[in-house]
Amino acid sequence: MSLTDEIKNVSPEDKARFDLEHETMSKNRVVAFQKRLDAMTESDSSAVTVLRDRLELQIKIEELIVKGREAEHVKWKVYGPTAISIIALAISLFAAFRPH
User: Fold this and answer.
1) What CA–CA distance (Å, rounded) separates 83 from 80?
2) 3 half-sphere exposure, CB direction, 13 A CA radius
3) Would you give the DSSP letter of residue 77?
4) How many distinct structural domains can be found in the chain?
5) Can you tell me the distance from the alpha carbon of 65 to that of 22, in angstroms, rounded to the nearest whole number?
6) Which of the residues 21, 72, 93, 96 has the least number of beta carbons within 10 Å of its own beta carbon?
7) In a domain, 64, yes or no
8) How confident is the model at residue 86 (pLDDT cuts 50, 70, 90)?
9) Position 50 in a domain
10) Reduced 3-state DSSP string for 36-90
């Protein structure tokens, strides 16, 4: 089974659990990175480089997750203006043709 097939076959329960855990884990990673950075001295240049590289990689992963969430909601954004226009038309027609 390919990775694409595995991604498509993720259950809604697993996805919801991942989203919830991801929010908590993301905050914890930020705190951990900050603690490590605060503990470093100027002589730890190689450690700073490794930490920087890990942080950049983590940021890219976070961006991918956010873009994935945005892509999931695009299907609703497409219909939003159309739905609002239809509702506005219905209200205006009702107001114009209602009996006095």
Assistant:
1) 5
2) 0
3) H
4) 1
5) 9
6) 96
7) yes
8) very high
9) yes
10) HHHHCCCCCHHHHHHHHHHHHHHHHHHHHHHHHHHHHHHHHHHHHHHHHHHHHHH
Task: Let me know if residue 81 belongs to a domain.
Answer: yes
Domain limits for position 56: 10-97
Q: Summarize pLDDT for 1-49 with one digit per residue, the tens.
A: 666 666 667 777 877 777 777 777 777 877 887 787 777 776 777 777 8
What is the separation of C-alpha 19 from the centre of its chain, rounded to a whole number of angstroms? 9
Q: What is the pLDDT of residues 47-79, one digit of tens each?
A: 778 878 888 888 888 888 888 777 777 767 778
Going by C-beta distance under 8 Å and a sequence separation of 6 or more, which residues neighbour residue 48? 37, 40
- Give the number of other Cβ atoms within 10 Å of residue 11's Cβ: 8
Type of residue found at 68: G
